[in-house]
Design a protein that fits this description.
Blueprint lengths: L2 E7 L4 E3 L6 H4 L9 H6 L1 E7 H9 L1 H8 L9 E4 L12 E4 L3 H12 L3 E6 L1 H9 L5 E7 L7 E2 L11 E8 L3 E7 L10
Parallel strand pairs: 1-6, 1-7, 3-4, 3-6, 4-5
Antiparallel strand pairs: 2-8, 7-10, 9-10
The protein binds NADP nicotinamide-adenine-dinucleotide phosphate.
NADP nicotinamide-adenine-dinucleotide phosphate (NAP) binds next to strand 1, strand 2, strand 3, helix 3 and strand 6.
Protein name: Dihydrofolate reductase family protein
Organism: Lyngbya confervoides BDU141951
InterPro entries: DHFR-like_dom_sf, RibDG_C, Riboflavin_Biosynth_HTPR
């Protein structure tokens, strides 16, 4: 069981524009031609921050048209927010706030022998990294730049560096890099 941050980014390290648009991403390649179908089949639970959740809320019609449901996931999900947000029809969601370590234990239990997916954003993935709970970074790098936007992973990772384990080209629009994370500060339950 791994905790994985699986995400698409622009070449210059942004996962969304400053106003949370993902339009730039959709022309770069199709999910069906990517590693996503295989990846999601191994996901047992997932976590996201409120900006990511609110993107789905704003785009329920598009999500429904593409996935057949306003909530595209069958796995139990945890949404991190300090605010009260509406629940999307058909979603199994817990809204949570604060330290990621206790939530991770619950997610682990729900995931069984499958993986935990940190959907985004970058700082939430960073909180799992800070706690020594992130095992993999799986990044699809799009052949496009944004100049500014929401950061991929706003952390300084220097020692130990990430361990690059695979590189895969997906057409001309994307390359996927997989990394193992080897930081392991002791995880204390709070
Ligand atoms: N390119 C891709 O593949 C991809 C994938 C996923 C997401 N995205 C996009 O990337 C953008 C990510 O936005 P973002 O960087 O702002 O990140 P985000 O993690 O989606 O949202 C950040 C917000 O989550 C809440 N939050 C985070 N950690 C928390 C904690 N420990 N406790 C309580 N609340 C917490 C806070 O808001 P509040 O407390 O105010 O609610 C925080 O401002 C979105 O536009 C999303 O659609 C792109």
């Amino acid at each position: 069981m791994k905790t994985q941050y699986y995400i698409a980014t622009s070449l210059d390290g942004f996962i969304a524009t400053e106003d949370d648009s993902l339009e730039w991403l959709f022309s770069l390649g199709s999910l069906d031609d990517s590693s996503y179908p295989e990846f999601i089949s191994e996901v047992g639970s997932l976590a996201m921050g409120s900006a990511t959740y609110e993107w789905i809320l704003r785009n329920v019609e598009q999500v429904s048209a593409e996935t057949g449901s306003p909530w595209p996931y069958t796995q139990p999900a945890w949404v991190f927010s300090s605010r009260k947000l509406p629940v999307i029809d058909g979603a199994t969601i817990q809204f949570v706030t604060g330290d990621v370590r206790n939530i991770h234990s619950e997610m682990q239990e729900a995931a069984g022998d499958k993986n935990i997916w940190i959907v985004g954003g970058g700082d939430l993935a960073g909180q799992f990294y800070d706690a020594g709970l992130l095992d993999n970074l799986i990044v699809q790098i799009g052949s496009a730049t944004l100049g500014k936007g929401k950061p991929l992973f706003p952390r300084r990772v220097l020692s130990p560096i990430l361990q690059l384990v695979s590189v895969r080209q997906m057409g001309t629009g994307m390359a996927e890099l997989r990394y193992e994370v080897h930081n392991r500060p002791p995880v204390e339950t709070v």
